[in-house]
Amino acid sequence: xxxxxxxxxxxxxxxxxxxxxxxxxxxxxxxxxxxxxxxxxxxxxxxxxxxxxxxxxxxxxxxxxxxxxxxxxxxxxxxxxxxxxxxxxxxxxxxxxxxxxxxxxxxxxxxxxxxxxxxxxxxxxxxxxxxxxxxxxxxxxxxxxxxxxxxxxxxxxxxxxxxxxxxxxxxxxxxxxxxxxxxxxxxxxxxxxxxxxxxxxxxxxxxxxxxxxxxxxxx
Length: 219
Description:
Elements: E1 2-5, H1 15-25, E2 29-35, H2 47-54, E3 60-66, H3 74-80, E4 84-88, H4 95-104, E5 108-113, E6 132-136, H5 150-164, E7 170-174, H6 179-188, E8 192-195, H7 197-200, H8 205-217
Parallel strand pairs: 1-8, 2-3, 3-4, 4-5, 5-6, 6-7, 7-8
Helix pairs in contact: 1-8, 2-3, 6-8
């Protein structure tokens, strides 16, 4: 299990310090929520901020694009230092082409699905060396929302598809993730858990990371 704290809930005035604190706590991934105010009803940050912070951080930068026409900006995020670039199936006119371009630019690629988007939307890309699928367990746009229970069934079904095809695709879950539901998610097949306010609101970060790990291990 990988915990990827969502910087949407971090202190935006001290992002460098926040990243340093995460790294010191033993966190390995940092999740960046990029929103454009069009695909989702919120605006956050862009590649310039990520590029600046990439210079001082060794964390895996997992960048989630909640934007229209993400294919227009792939090069900018590659230049910014993204390690994993996740685009929404709902935002891509030519999804397979977009994923191929992400790989060509040297990044790992992922596809995000909104809660109402069925898994069949992945039928023709799941075998295309897809590194990760992000199951949104809230409707995207804002942090602090409650987890949608139907997401558990979606994760189970996706895990079955991945196993049947003999793939190594990671399953990431984002939205309302906290220690109380992390064990269920991992048992359902999740590999990467994104947590925002349920992580950053409970310092120190090393203790909060351990709380997630303990919740998954407990019987």
